[in-house]
Amino acid sequence: MATTLIEETQYGAWMEISLKGRVDAFNDRRLMSQMEKYLQPAGRKIVLELSQCEFMSMAFLRGLMDLAQRLESQGGRFVLLTPHQQVKRQIEIFVGNNVFEIYRSFHELELTEHQSEAPSCF
Fold first, then answer.
1. What does the pLDDT look like over 101-115, one tens digit per residue?
2. Most-buried pick from 41, 56, 87, 118 (CB within 10 A)?
3. Which residue stretches of the chain have pLDDT < 50?
4. Spatial contact of 53 and 87, defined as CB atoms under 8 Å apart
5. What's the burial of 102, exposed, middle or buried (CB within 10 Å: 0-12/13-18/19+)?
């Protein structure tokens, strides 16, 4: 059984969590309980980097949806970054395209964040 790793890095206001390997029925509960710790402090901004995650169980995807909703209800934000093509397809099939914000790079995320902070001109 291959090892699945979670690595975290702080980038300014964002906590980047990199998920590497497979998330399947053998490890999805353990990994989801590790992800739960990122709900604190309230209002946290999380980017889940998935370029090296080849598979996610449906249970884990549902858990991520719940985690994202809880985080956002606390005033935080949860986005996905560069999902592996297989994982992106799983998200499309099992969750839908409108559940998660997905970005191709951290730079793209920062650009959209700065655009939303810019004052509106009338």
1. 999 998 899 888 877
2. 56
3. 1, 118-122
4. yes
5. middle
